[in-house]
Amino acid sequence: PVASTLGIPHENIYANELLFGSSGEFVGFNTEEPTSRSGGKAVAVESIKK
């Protein structure tokens, strides 16, 4: 919601996807997202700049 209020396109949003178990407990995050790795924020910024 905040991104749309600020006019940030959906394709320019990079964030860790949190994963939860069947009881609602946090079990980890999606390691495929660039922001989940060291240096991932720089990768996301470069992608946005293109």
From TrEMBL:
Region listing for Disordered, in residue ranges: 31-50
Listed GO CC annotations: chloroplast
The keyword Cytoplasm belongs to this UniProt entry's keyword annotation: no
Keywords, in A-Z order: Amino-acid biosynthesis, Hydrolase, Magnesium, Metal-binding, Serine biosynthesis
Class in the EC hierarchy, top level: hydrolase
Listed GO MF terms: L-phosphoserine phosphatase activity; magnesium ion binding
EC numbers for this chain: 3.1.3.3
GO biological processes: L-serine biosynthetic process
InterPro entries found in the cross-reference section: HAD-like_SerB, HAD-like_sf, HAD_sf
Pathway: Amino-acid biosynthesis; L-serine biosynthesis; L-serine from 3-phospho-D-glycerate: step 3/3
Cofactor(s) for this UniProt protein: Mg(2+)
Protein's name in the database: phosphoserine phosphatase
Organism: Nymphaea colorata (pocket water lily)
